[in-house]
Design goal:
The complex is a heterodimer of chains A (159) and B (421).
Chain A (H helix, E strand, L loop, with lengths): L1 H9 L13 E9 L2 E9 H5 L8 H12 L4 H4 E2 L7 E11 L4 E10 L8 E4 L1 H4 L5 E8 L2 E7 L4 E4 L2
Parallel strand pairs in A: 1-7
Antiparallel strand pairs in A: 1-2, 2-5, 3-6, 4-5, 6-9, 7-8
Chain B lengths: L1 H12 L1 H33 L7 E5 L3 H9 L9 E2 H8 L4 E13 L2 E6 L2 H5 L1 E2 L3 E2 L2 E4 L7 E4 L1 H7 L6 E2 L19 E7 L9 E5 H8 L28 E2 L1 E6 L2 H12 L6 E4 L1 H11 L1 H32 L1 H9 L4 H42 L10 H17 L1 H9 L2 H5 L4
Parallel strand pairs in B: 4-11, 8-10
Antiparallel strand pairs in B: 1-13, 1-14, 2-12, 3-4, 3-13, 5-6, 7-10, 8-11, 9-10
Chain lengths: 159, 421
C-alpha cells in the first residue's frame, strides 16, 4: 500500500515550490543544542506589498515599515518560554531581480536549554498577513521536521 | 453500592448477552487503538527510514524524486553526477562524512546499489540503528556483493552463491544480463524492516566494472569485451555516481552547506534535508490517516449499536424486574440511573478489555510487525489523543444507555406486574 501511496505522491512533486512564489515564504531553522540559526526567505510583495524598486516616498515608507517588522521574528517563530530563547537578526537583504524581488534574513538564536524535544509555534500571518503559506524546515540535533504553515498558531513538535 | 450490586446481578443474569456486548465493544476499541498505534508506527517507520543524515545530494530534480530513488528504491534519477563533483563537494570543511550511491542496475527485480564501506559505517535508520551483517562480510573484493535480508529470503540465497546483475531495473528477467561478470555473495544484511532489505550492495568499482567495456549505452561486441580477470578494484576509475548522503559537522552549518550545494556552479545539484522531505511526504499522506480513523470510529459506532440492541431487547424480559424494583420503592429516576449505570459498566469493561487486547497484541507481535511491515513501534503506549478517544468512547457508551433507560422509565408499573397471558 505504501508503494502505491508513494507513487501517487510523485504527482505532488510537480507542485513543489519554485524559488519565487507569491504569498509563499520559507523558513529554515537549525539547532546544535541551545544555539541555532534561522533563515527567512519571502517575496517582498508579502513583506511590503510590491516588488518593484521603491521610488516614491509612499513606497519607500511602506518598504521601511515592512522590513522593520523583520525584527519581530520572535513573535512569528515562538519558542517554548521555558527555553528562554533570544532571537537576534544578523543580516537581511532585499534581492531585486528583473521581475521579482525577495527578502532574505538570517537570525541567530540563543536559548538556555536545548530546543530539540520542545514545540515551536508559528504566527507569520500576524505580522505579515500577505504571507499565506510558509514552508518551515527544522533541523534540531537529530530531529528533522517540516511543516507548511498556513495559519497563525500552527505548531511543530521537535520530537 | 446498591446500584453496583444490582447492576452486576442483573448483568450476571444475562451473562451470555453481556459477554457478547463487552466483546463487541472491546474489539471495536482494540481496533481503534490499533489503527492509531499503526498510524503512529507507520509515521515513525516512514520518517525514520533514514536518520543521522543531514543532507542527500543528487542531480537537480525534485526533492521527493530524490528521496524516493535513494531511500525507497523507487523511480529513477534523471541524471547522474560526476565523481569529480562528488570529490570536490565532499572536501567542504563543513562535511563530516559522505556515502556515495550509484544506481541503475538490478537483480531479479531488486535494486543494485554501488557504494563503499562508509555505507556500513555511517548509514543509520530508526535513530541509532546501523546497517549490520547477519552473516559474512562486507564487499571487500571487486566481485563481492552484500544482499539485503529480503533479497536473501525471497531468492533463497546463502553466502558464496553466484549473482548475475541485470542492466536496468526490471521486475523479472532482464533483457541485458551482465552474465559475463557474475558476482559472489560475501554477506547478508540483518533485517531492518526498511527498503534497505530489498537491495543488493556492491562496491562503486564493481558497478563500473559491469559497464567498463560498454560503449554509448550498448553491450560490447565479443572482440571488445574486457576479460573478467583483467579487472581489479584498484585500476577501475569511478566516473559517475547517482547521489550521496552527507553528515555535517554541525546542524547550523548544514543550512549554509545546503545552500552552497544547491547553488554549485559546475554542475546542477540538489541537496535536501531527508527528515524534512519525509515529513512533508507524510503530511501529504495525511488523508489516509483520516480514512483509517473514520473506519475505526464506524467500528466503534457498530459496537455501540450492538450494546444498544442488547440492552433494548433484554428490556422486554426485564419488565418484571423493573416493576418489582418500582414496587419495592425505587423511583423511576433510579431505574433510569440503574440502566445507565449498567451500560457505563459494560462500556468500561469493554474499553478496558479493548486496551488489554490492543496492548497485548502490540507487545506480542512487535518484532514480527517491525521486520515484516516496517512499522516502527516506539513512543508512549498512549498519546493524548488516544486517551481522549477512550474518554469519548466511555461517555458515548454511557449516553447510549439513556435510550433503553428512558424507554424503561415509560413502562407503567402495572405493565410489569400484570399477569401475563
Amino acid at each position: 500500500m505504501l508503494k502505491v501511496l508513494l507513487l501517487s505522491l510523485m504527482a505532488l512533486a510537480h507542485t513543489e515550490h519554485g524559488a519565487h512564489v507569491h504569498g509563499t515564504g520559507k523558513v529554515s531553522l537549525a539547532f546544535d543544542g541551545k544555539k541555532g540559526k534561522l533563515e527567512f526567505h519571502a517575496p517582498t510583495e508579502a513583506i511590503y506589498g510590491f516588488e518593484h524598486s521603491a521610488k516614491s516616498k509612499k513606497d519607500k515608507q511602506k518598504k521601511e515599515e515592512g522590513l522593520g517588522k523583520l525584527d519581530a521574528m520572535a513573535e512569528m517563530v515562538v519558542f517554548d518560554p521555558a527555553l528562554k530563547c533570544e532571537v537576534k537578526k544578523e543580516i537581511f537583504e532585499v534581492i531585486e531581480q528583473k521581475n521579482h524581488s525577495d527578502v532574505e534574513a538570517e537570525y541567530a538564536i540563543n536559548c538556555e536549554a536545548p530546543v530539540a524535544g520542545s514545540t515551536v509555534t508559528f504566527n507569520f500571518q500576524k505580522t505579515y498577513p500577505r504571507l499565506k503559506k510558509v514552508q518551515v524546515e527544522v533541523l534540531a540535533d537529530q530531529v528533522q521536521k517540516s511543516l507548511e504553515v498556513k495559519k497563525n498558531g500552527e505548531s511543530l513538535e521537535l520530537k | 453500592m446498591v446500584f453496583l450490586k444490582l447492576a452486576i446481578k442483573s448483568l450476571q443474569n444475562r451473562a451470555f448477552a453481556t459477554t457478547l456486548t463487552v466483546i463487541s465493544i472491546a474489539l471495536s476499541v482494540a481496533l481503534l487503538l490499533t489503527v492509531e498505534r499503526a498510524k503512529r508506527a507507520a509515521e515513525e517507520g516512514f520518517t525514520q527510514t533514514i536518520s543521522k543524515t543531514d543532507l542527500i545530494v543528487g542531480a537537480r530534480s525534485g526533492p521527493l524524486q530524490l528521496i524516493l530513488y535513494t531511500v525507497f528504491n523507487m523511480g529513477n534519477a534523471t541524471h547522474n553526477i560526476s565523481y569529480e563533483t562528488y570529490e570536490k563537494v565532499r572536501m567542504n570543511p563543513a562535511i563530516d562524512w559522505t556515502i556515495p550511491y550509484s544506481l541503475g542496475d538490478g537483480h531479479r527485480g531488486f535494486r543494485v546499489v554501488g557504494t563503499n564501506q562508509d555505507f556500513f559505517k555511517y548509514y543509520h535508520y530508526r535513530g541509532d540503528r546501523k546497517v549490520t551483517l547477519a552473516e559474512g562480510q562486507e564487499f571487500n573484493d571487486l566481485w563481492d556483493v552484500v544482499v539485503g535480508a529480503e533479497v536473501a529470503r525471497k531468492l533463497g540465497y546463502k553466502l558464496g552463491d553466484r549473482v548475475v546483475v541485470t542492466h536496468g531495473v526490471t521486475k523479472g528477467e532482464g533483457i541485458l544480463q551482465h552474465d559475463d561478470r557474475p558476482f559472489k555473495i560475501s554477506g547478508i544484511l540483518e533485517a531492518t524492516g526498511t527498503p534497505l532489505d530489498r537491495a543488493v550492495y556492491m562496491s562503486l568499482q564493481g558497478m563500473e566494472a559491469l559497464h567498463i567495456d560498454w560503449q554509448d549505452g550498448s553491450a560490447p561486441s565479443p572482440d571488445k569485451i574486457v576479460p573478467h580477470n583483467k579487472l581489479s578494484k584498484e585500476t577501475l576509475p569511478v566516473q559517475t555516481i547517482t547521489a550521496f548522503f552527507v553528515g555535517a559537522k554541525s546542524r547550523i552549518e548544514t543550512l549554509k552547506l545546503q545552500r552552497e550545494i544547491n547553488t554549485y556552479k559546475e554542475e546542477p545539484l540538489l541537496a535536501i534535508i531527508p527528515g524534512a522531505t519525509l515529513s512533508e511526504l507524510w503530511n501529504g499522506l495525511s488523508y489516509v490517516e483520516g480514512v483509517l480513523r473514520m473506519i475505526s470510529w464506524m467500528v466503534v459506532a457498530v459496537g455501540f449499536m450492538a450494546m444498544l440492541i442488547a440492552l433494548t431487547t433484554t428490556l422486554n424480559e426485564r419488565r418484571r424486574e423493573m416493576a418489582i424494583l418500582r414496587a419495592v420503592g425505587a423511583k423511576s429516576t433510579q431505574i433510569v440511573g440503574l440502566l445507565v449505570f449498567e451500560s457505563a459498566l459494560l462500556t468500561a469493561v469493554g474499553v478496558l478489555s479493548g486496551v488489554v487486547v490492543s496492548v497485548g497484541l502490540v507487545a506480542a507481535l512487535k518484532p514480527w510487525i517491525e521486520t515484516e511491515f516496517g512499522l516502527y513501534l516506539v513512543g508512549p503506549w498512549f498519546t493524548r489523543s488516544e486517551l481522549l478517544y477512550l474518554a469519548i468512547t466511555l461517555v458515548g457508551g454511557t449516553v447510549i444507555g439513556l435510550i433503553p433507560a428512558l424507554r424503561a422509565q415509560k413502562l407503567a408499573l402495572k405493565d410489569g406486574l400484570s399477569v401475563r397471558t
